[in-house]
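User: Please fill in residues for this 373-position structure.
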């Protein structure tokens, strides 16, 4: 059960002390207090864990300081959607809103290679009105002999270039707890010219110690990718690890599943599940058409499969698109064959806008239909 406290609750007050005493007296129930700092308001929530079946929602709602009590199912207690749950499905970061109702494109390099390529990418993003990017500094590679990313040494100039071109948020994968402090220190040393969304890659979706470490900090929001060889439920539970440690600024990414059925694509594209994740949880949903499709192949009219997959996700209500670009794909050190060229950025953005418009029209048509029922 989750208790949401009134906005004006003073944690030093007698009322709050009484509440905590009454909760401590409940048999076989532990409580965990979470403070959620939003831009407009900060909220205190108390998670009751243990034998909560016997508790009545009305009794809990009558306790001092409690505004609302929500009975949650076992699944995804914090990030899930539950009955009578009015908790938000969005968060703010760097002045941008990330929610189940918004859409952001994070185009950029799979792996940071040279300063020149990063600058060309950032410039193209700014020229096309973009304020978000993807940049991989720590690369989890299948072979130990492949390029592993420049790591912390590239962070200062990547962040400075982001600031120069007004990029507000960079999605950047971390593969070890120490990368969080390296990113924080580098941002501080360069005067915080940009923001970072920490990315958990598909190979680390069930690296529970990494999830706990990333979840313990609340400075950076998190983009967690679906594990490519586990169930959706297991991946959503992985996201819940982040929230259970205190960080519920989480975006969930679909990026395709591994199959051995002679796929035409690098992974089996799972974007039909965008609405499923939005229904089960309050997380904004990202799709990664590059790592799922993995090729620049096109259909007979010339539209690339990466564009088709993106459009299918956006028309189904996706909230974020993470997509690989490179100024010179044959020279890319990682994933060149799936990279889009910089000249293709305005064309992708136009295709995304067409799909988003269609999604909004579909939602409006459905709203009208439901109102008539
Ligand atoms: C990436 O986005 O750079 C990446 C490695 O993706 P994934 O974890 O989905 O393979
Ligand atoms: Mn890649």
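Assistant: Residues filled in for all 373 positions:
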């Amino acid at each position: 059960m989750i208790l949401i406290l009134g906005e004006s609750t003073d944690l030093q007050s007698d009322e709050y002390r009484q509440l905590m005493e009454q909760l401590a007296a409940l048999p076989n129930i532990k409580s965990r207090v979470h403070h959620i700092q939003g831009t407009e308001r900060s909220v205190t929530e108390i998670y009751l864990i243990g034998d909560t079946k016997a508790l009545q929602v009305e009794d809990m709602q009558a306790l001092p300081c409690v505004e609302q009590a929500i009975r949650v199912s076992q699944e995804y207690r914090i990030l899930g959607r539950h009955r009578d749950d009015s908790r938000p499905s969005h968060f703010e970061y760097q002045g941008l809103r990330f929610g189940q109702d918004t859409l952001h494109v994070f185009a950029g390099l799979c792996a940071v290679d040279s300063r020149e390529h990063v600058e060309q990418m950032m410039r193209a993003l700014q020229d096309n009105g973009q304020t978000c990017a993807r940049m991989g500094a720590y690369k989890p590679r299948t072979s130990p002999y492949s390029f592993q990313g420049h790591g912390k040494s590239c962070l200062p100039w990547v962040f400075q270039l982001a600031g120069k071109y007004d990029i507000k948020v960079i999605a950047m994968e971390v593969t070890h707890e120490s990368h969080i402090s390296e990113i924080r220190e580098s941002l501080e040393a360069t005067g915080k010219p940009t923001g970072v969304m920490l990315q958990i890659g598909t190979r680390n979706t069930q690296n529970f110690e990494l999830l706990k470490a990333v979840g313990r900090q609340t400075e950076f929001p998190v983009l967690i990718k679906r594990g490519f060889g586990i169930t959706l439920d297991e991946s959503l539970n992985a996201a819940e690890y982040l929230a259970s440690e205190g960080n519920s600024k989480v975006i969930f990414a679909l990026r395709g599943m591994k199959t051995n059925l002679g796929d035409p694509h690098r992974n089996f594209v799972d974007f039909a599940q965008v609405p499923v994740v939005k229904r089960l949880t309050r997380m904004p949903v990202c799709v990664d058409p590059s790592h799922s499709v993995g090729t620049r192949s096109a259909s007979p009219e010339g539209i690339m499969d990466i564009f088709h997959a993106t459009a299918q996700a956006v028309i189904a209500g996706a909230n974020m698109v993470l997509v690989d670009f490179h100024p010179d794909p044959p020279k890319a050190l990682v994933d060149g064959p799936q990279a889009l060229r910089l000249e293709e950025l305005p064309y992708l953005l136009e295709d995304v806008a067409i799909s988003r418009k269609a999604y909004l029209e579909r939602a409006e048509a459905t709203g009208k239909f439901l109102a008539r029922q």
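For context: The chain has a mean pLDDT of 95.
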